[in-house]
């Protein structure tokens, strides 16, 4: 299993870090099989799997349940789990107990939390307490209502400067890595250069230390809206839909189950049964 030290070393040696989200055991198995460097149990869970239209309704219980499933599917891969909406803002006692549940009960190897500014002292406290923390800056979906929509961050000078400052603060607070979402690739390249912890980009160009994408987007599974920064490597919905259609059709026509799918009993038992 890789560790936070492995990721630091990968950055130093310019070996790119490949990260994908997972929410259940079978997807986690695919990722482990593909040797991804880290799995993210993202709160994108809310949209991708639970059918909500944002990450806001996702609870800590949801994250615990899904992290446990991912852990069972990928026991040898480093797992980062998102602390969901408003689970790390109230006070340190509740933040610690929430992080503890993800680490102890669910089996996460690290937690991710969104934001700079007020979140920086929290990152500091968590890392001091021995919880590996991944930061997340740029587009931070938990604050989308405040940001006024899903859009590219850090395009203007002031915004770009403050993103760079936040990234440095995240590093100084002790985070082991940083997700940078939806920022111009030049800014992502600069931030990657300026800080010594690995920067994992999503919609942030090719110069970050690694990339993260949502599992369902990568394989084209049921995603209704695919952002510009996503590359879809397959379209499994095109395989799933005809398969399900065919099954329903065959049940109706008694074409399924066939002989080979059935169980039978011995003739004499049958005779006894009918009397
Ligand atoms: O929840 C998530 O999937 C994420 C990634 C998009 C970085 O936070
Ligand atoms: Na997330």
Automatic annotation (TrEMBL):
Assigned EC number: 2.1.2.11
Active site feature: 181 (proton acceptor)
Family matches, as InterPro entries: Pantoate_hydroxy_MeTrfase (IPR003700), Pyrv/PenolPyrv_kinase-like_dom (IPR015813), Pyrv_kinase-like_dom_sf (IPR040442)
Top-level taxon of the source organism: Bacteria
Pathway where this protein functions: Cofactor biosynthesis; (R)-pantothenate biosynthesis; (R)-pantoate from 3-methyl-2-oxobutanoate: step 1/2
SUPFAM superfamilies reported in the protein's UniProt record: Phosphoenolpyruvate/pyruvate domain
Residues that bind 3-methyl-2-oxobutanoate: 43-44, 82, 112
Chemical reaction(s) catalysed: (6R)-5,10-methylene-5,6,7,8-tetrahydrofolate + 3-methyl-2-oxobutanoate + H2O = 2-dehydropantoate + (6S)-5,6,7,8-tetrahydrofolate
NCBIfam families noted in UniProt: panB, PRK00311.1
Family to which this protein belongs: Belongs to the PanB family.
Assembly mode: Homodecamer; pentamer of dimers.
Function, in words: Catalyzes the reversible reaction in which hydroxymethyl group from 5,10-methylenetetrahydrofolate is transferred onto alpha-ketoisovalerate to form ketopantoate.
Name recorded for this polypeptide: 3-methyl-2-oxobutanoate hydroxymethyltransferase
Organism: Alkalihalophilus lindianensis
Chain's gene name: panB
